[in-house]
């Protein structure tokens, strides 16, 4: 396979994977929990609108199935996993809003915005127990507290808890400002987000748990929202009794390459030829950034608005290469039990 063919294959695969990533053809995301050895499962192909995304997800699965052998064990397994994901969907997810201050630390600033939250009271039995799933760097959907296989729902059913999900400021529908100007981003901070969580809990204690002397709140989160949950628990022990955190990023590192090392390890363990193909493909991309002609060719292959003119050390090129690699990394990280399928599909695509 000549160099140009490799990059064209990557381009085609990236387009397919990016489209799949928007609808999550694999049905589930699974990340191992560091506390309980249980996966935190999120069904992101579903939202409050429900059936539209389900239909899109099914169509992608059919397309994927047809692109491989129809009798393939891999394709059959993924279709079966999706079928399981469609079961036991709780429809009674309510959406509401709570008023928050734009600046929680300036008493003279009276400006407010509406912060979105969702609730699921399917299992609540007046126990005074509340589970709060914290939103992170994305919009919230009913999937966060709406599917029976989610460990949060399993625990809610067992202990009679009310379930809530709070959207992070500046994400989804929780927008303090109509426009995203650089000036407005000074209100997008961890401390402001933690203050929002505190205000929300205090508000719900007064409104929803008014008859309960001391409601018991347990926070849930993963990755960035997991860090928020851990920090909030540490700072507000009077308002919470626990935080269940999966992969909370509480120790930030600037030069963090261990994630990529683990990605390489998983690829080699699951499918060594596939790992080698991806390595050679990334090498081909990097080599093309070294010359003006190569950068111009990348601009054409990836249909860029403006081709690269800078040397390979430029931030634009570094971000470009990181984004290409992140497509593979994201699918490995979030695929869970589907990882064998994804690796085999990568290899199938490149090989053919």
Automatic annotation (TrEMBL):
Q: Does the keyword DNA repair apply?
A: no
The leader peptide range reads 1-27
One function term, GO molecular function aspect: serine-type exopeptidase activity
GO BP: proteolysis
Q: Is Membrane there in the keyword field?
A: yes
Q: Which SUPFAM superfamilies match?
A: alpha/beta-Hydrolases
**What InterPro entries does the database record attribute to this sequence?**
AB_hydrolase_fold, Peptidase_S28, Ser_carbopepase_S28_SKS
- TM annotation in the entry: 331-350
Sorted UniProt keywords? Glycoprotein, Hydrolase, Membrane, Protease, Signal, Transmembrane, Transmembrane helix
So what family is this one in? Answer: Belongs to the peptidase S28 family.
Checking PANTHER family in the record gives: PROTEASE S28 PRO-X CARBOXYPEPTIDASE-RELATED, SERINE PROTEASE F56F10.1-RELATED
Q: This chain belongs to which protein, by name?
A: Serine protease K12H4.7
């Amino acid at each position: 396979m000549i160099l140009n063919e490799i990059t064209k294959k990557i381009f085609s695969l990236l387009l397919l994977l990016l489209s799949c990533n928007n609808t999550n053809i694999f049905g589930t995301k699974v990340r191992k929990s560091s506390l309980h050895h249980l996966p935190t499962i999120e069904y992101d192909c579903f939202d409050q609108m429900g059936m539209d995304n389900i239909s899109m997800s099914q169509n992608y699965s059919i397309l994927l199935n047809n692109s491989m052998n129809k009798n393939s064990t891999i394709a059959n397994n993924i279709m079966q996993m999706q079928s399981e994901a469609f079961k036991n969907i709780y429809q009674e997810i309510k959406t509401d809003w709570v008023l928050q201050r734009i600046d929680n630390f300036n008493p003279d600033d009276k400006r407010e915005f509406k912060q979105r939250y969702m609730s699921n009271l399917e299992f609540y039995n007046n126990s005074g127990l509340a589970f709060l799933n914290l939103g992170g760097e994305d919009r919230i959907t009913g999937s966060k507290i709406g599917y029976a296989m989610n460990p949060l729902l399993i625990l809610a059913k067992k202990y009679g808890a009310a379930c809530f999900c709070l959207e992070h400021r500046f994400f989804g529908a929780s927008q303090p400002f109509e426009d995203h100007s650089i000036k407005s981003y000074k209100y997008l901070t961890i401390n402001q987000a933690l203050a929002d969580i505190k205000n929300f809990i205090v508000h719900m204690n007064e409104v929803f748990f008014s008859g309960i002397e001391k409601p018991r709140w347990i926070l849930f989160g993963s990755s960035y929202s997991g860090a928020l949950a851990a920090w909030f628990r540490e700072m507000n022990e009077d308002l919470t009794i626990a935080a269940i955190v999966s992969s909370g990023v509480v120790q930030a590192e600037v030069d963090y390459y261990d994630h990529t090392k683990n990605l390489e390890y998983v690829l080699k363990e699951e499918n060594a030829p596939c790992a080698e193909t991806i390595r050679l493909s990334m090498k081909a991309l990097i080599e093309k950034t070294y010359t003006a002609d190569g950068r111009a060719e990348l601009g054409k292959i990836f249909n860029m608005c403006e081709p690269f003119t800078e040397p390979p050390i430029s931030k634009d090129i570094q971000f470009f290469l990181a984004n290409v690699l992140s497509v593979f990394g994201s699918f490995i990280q979030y695929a869970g039990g589907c990882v064998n399928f994804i690796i085999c599909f990568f290899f199938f695509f490149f090989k053919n």
